[in-house]
Design brief:
The protein is mainly α. It contains 13 helices and 3 strands; from the N terminus they run αααβββαααααααααα. The protein has a 3-stranded antiparallel β-sheet with strand order 1-2-3, with helices on one face.
C-alpha cells in the first residue's frame, strides 16, 4: 500500500465514521434527558457544530508543516500540565458525576485529557527524534520519556479517568516500541501499569462495584451493571441486520448515556451485527493505513508522531467497544467520531489533520521501517 492510498483510506474511514456518528447522535440524542425548556435536538446541533469546527481546523492543520510543532513542545507540555492541575482548582475545575475531568472557561467546558493525547504524542516523538540513537538506553530511552508522559498520566488517573489513562498509556508504549525502546522495559512497565490500575480500581468502592457488575452483569442489572446489561440486550435485539435506524427502544430511558459512552450499543440495536462489524472494520483499516503511512515516512519525528496519533484513536475505540460488549468493566470512555462530546470530537478530528500534514510535508520511501531491523543495524 502506498502512502497516498493510506491517507485516502484514512479519510474515507474518518468521514464514514463521522457521518455515522452524527446520524446516531440524531437518533439517540432526541431520547436523552434534557432540562426544562431545552430543545431535544440540541445534541445534534452541538455535535454538528463541533464536527464543523473540527473539519475547518483539520483542513487548516493539514496545510501547515507539522515540523513547526517541535518549536512549541515544551510550551504545549507545560500548558497541558497546568490545565490538568486546573481541574482541581475550585471555580475553574468542574466536578461532574464525581469526576474532576473538566475545566470551565465560562463560554465552554473543556477536557484537558483530550488535549493530552496529541500533546504527549508530539512530546514523545520530538524526544525520540532528537535522541534517536539513545532509544535503546535505559536513561534517555526510557526514564526521561517516562517522566514526560508519566506526570500528565498520573494527573489523569487522579481525575478518576482510568479509561483515558489506560488508552493513553498503551498508545505511549506503542510509540516507544516503534522508537526502538527495549522490549523487556516495555513489558515490565505494562505490568506495573496494570498493577497500578488494579490498585486504583480495588481501592475505590465504586470502581470495585463496577468490576463485580462486569463479572455478573445480570445480578447487578438494576444497579451498577445496568448499562452493560442493557447494552447486551440491545445487541441481542439488533441481531444481524438491526431493527432499523431510529427504531431502537433501549435508548428511551433504559440505557443511560446512550448518546455518549454507550452509543455503540445503539449501533448494534439499530444496525445489527452488520453495523457493528462495519465500525470495527473502519477503525481497523484506519489504524493499519496510518501505520503503513508512518512506516513509509522518511522522517523520525513524523513517523513516530503518526504512529502515536493513530494509536490515540485506535485504543480508545477498542476499549469503548470492549466495555459496551461487556468484555471489560465500565470505564466511561467515548467512542471516537461517534459518541456525543465536543472536546473529544474536535481533538480526534484534528489528529486526522496532523496525519494529513505528515503525509504532505514529508518525503516517503518504498522500504518499510521497522524498529527491530534498526536495532540490529545499530548493533552491527
Amino acid at each position: 500500500m502506498s502512502s497516498r492510498l493510506s491517507i485516502i483510506s484514512i479519510w474515507f474511514c474518518f468521514i464514514t465514521l463521522l457521518v455515522l456518528g452524527i446520524t446516531m447522535v440524531a437518533s439517540t440524542g432526541l431520547c436523552a434527558p434534557v432540562q426544562d425548556g431545552e430543545d431535544p435536538a440540541m445534541f445534534l446541533y452541538k455535535q454538528s457544530f463541533f464536527a464543523f469546527i473540527g473539519l475547518v481546523g483539520t483542513i487548516f492543520i493539514s496545510h501547515v508543516d507539522y515540523h513547526i510543532l517541535r518549536r512549541w513542545v515544551l510550551a504545549l507540555w507545560c500548558l497541558l500540565t497546568l490545565l490538568l492541575i486546573g481541574c482541581f482548582i475550585p471555580g475553574f475545575g468542574m466536578e461532574i458525576n464525581g469526576e474532576n475531568r473538566w475545566v470551565n472557561f465560562r463560554v465552554i467546558t473543556f477536557q484537558p485529557s483530550e488535549l493530552a493525547k496529541s500533546v504527549l504524542m508530539i512530546a514523545l516523538a520530538d524526544w525520540y527524534a532528537t535522541h534517536r540513537e539513545m532509544a535503546g538506553t535505559f536513561l534517555k530511552g526510557f526514564i526521561y520519556p517516562g517522566v514526560i508522559f508519566g506526570i500528565p498520566l498520573l494527573l489523569i488517573l487522579v481525575e478518576k479517568d482510568m479509561g483515558t489513562a489506560a488508552a493513553l498509556g498503551v498508545s505511549c508504549f506503542c510509540l516507544m516500541y516503534v522508537a526502538g525502546v527495549r522490549n523487556w522495559l516495555l513489558i515490565v512497565s505494562l505490568l506495573m501499569g496494570a498493577a497500578l490500575l488494579y490498585w486504583q480500581a480495588t481501592d475505590s468502592p465504586n470502581r470495585l462495584d463496577r468490576i463485580f457488575a462486569w463479572m455478573n452483569p445480570e445480578a447487578y442489572s438494576q444497579g451498577s451493571g445496568r448499562q452493560q446489561w442493557i447494552s447486551v440486550l440491545a445487541f441481542a435485539r439488533g441481531g444481524v441486520t438491526g431493527v432499523g435506524l431510529g427504531d431502537g427502544i433501549e435508548k428511551f430511558g433504559n440505557l443511560p448515556f446512550a448518546h455518549t459512552d454507550f452509543i455503540f450499543a445503539e449501533v448494534g440495536e439499530e444496525w445489527g451485527l452488520v453495523g457493528t462489524a462495519g465500525v470495527l472494520m473502519l477503525f481497523t483499516i484506519m489504524t493499519l493505513s496510518g501505520i503503513v503511512m508512518a512506516l513509509q515516512t522518511n522522517d523520525t519525528f513524523g513517523r513516530l508522531l503518526a504512529v502515536g496519533l493513530v494509536c490515540t484513536i485506535f485504543w480508545p475505540a477498542m476499549l469503548n467497544m470492549m466495555v459496551v460488549t461487556s468484555m471489560l468493566p465500565n470505564s466511561g470512555l467515548p467512542l471516537p467520531f461517534i459518541s456525543y462530546g465536543g472536546t473529544n470530537l474536535v481533538f480526534t478530528i484534528l489528529a486526522i489533520g496532523l496525519l494529513t500534514s505528515i503525509h504532505r510535508h514529508t518525503p516517503h520511501k518504498k522500504e518499510i521501517y521497522w524498529p527491530t531491523r534498526r536495532l540490529q543495524q545499530n548493533k552491527l
